[in-house]
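Hi, here's the filled form for the chain we discussed.

Project: internal
Contact: R.S.
Residues: 310
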Amino acid sequence: MFESILDKVDLERDKFLAKDNSDRIWLLRRGVYFTIFLYFFLLLPKADFFFGQEALTHEPKHSSDWLEPFVKLLFTETFSSCYLYFIFGLFASIFIGVWKPFIRVASVFVYFFVFNLFNKAEYITNGSVTITCLLLFFLIFMSEKKKDYENCKSGYVDVLLTNTVFIIAQIQVCTVYLVAAIYKFTGEEWLAGTAFYYVLNFEFLSHKLVANQIFKSDFSLYFMNYFSLFYQVLFPFFVWIKSIKKWLLLAGLLINIGIIVINGLLDFGLIMIVSYSLFIDNETAKKVRGLVKSVFSGDFRSFKNFNSRN
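And the returned structure, exactly as it came back:
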């Protein structure tokens, strides 16, 4: 009996190590990098206002956290005027970070620059910062290259680390949804069905013209309120069910496109869509990867292959 248990453990271990997440990680990394690049590129014309010495910010509290001095450098007298170096250092790290020999090293620098810039401009950030920084941290430990773990000790460790962190990242995204849902259930407006209405009435959180055209009835407002609420409740549990996952991710895609178009939260909507790379199957990720490469190479045969397979 004990031997049969060990055999099952060995079998599950081999299945775990044989799982290929390389294409999903490839897609996730470039999606996160694209979102970050676009966000800071759009802020670049007013960089001094958001990151400069006169930027609206709070005085950082002193903490015993050993990491804090490294991620709040823009608050120091030495680096307070160096925000442009941080932004362009970030852009350079992103560019270098998509080339295989430098992926891991560059990912550390991307995390370093992003964390410093987000801390400095905290008053213009939203919930996307948390998930962005978490994904960047996880990407430091994830490899895009499928390695031979059976004949190479370093390959074994790398695959084990990559696949373990990949699962942790999936659980983290689910936790974000679950915590958001729990907090919504503690608020009267979400339970009463009026929260979405109030959100749309904040000028800085909605495009009034678009919102007024789409939500012309009370029913549509109530529907979106409860649909969003229950989606966040169901996501952490149903995303693991293969037969339902595709439709769940499609619904999430539409919700986040709505957040971008109606609420104007480009960074939040994009990073949540990118996080779905963790949940699509690797074959689908491989096809999308081919499409992305086709766009940049000018070879559109992958589009035909994608359509023929679907």
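Let me know if anything looks off before we file it.
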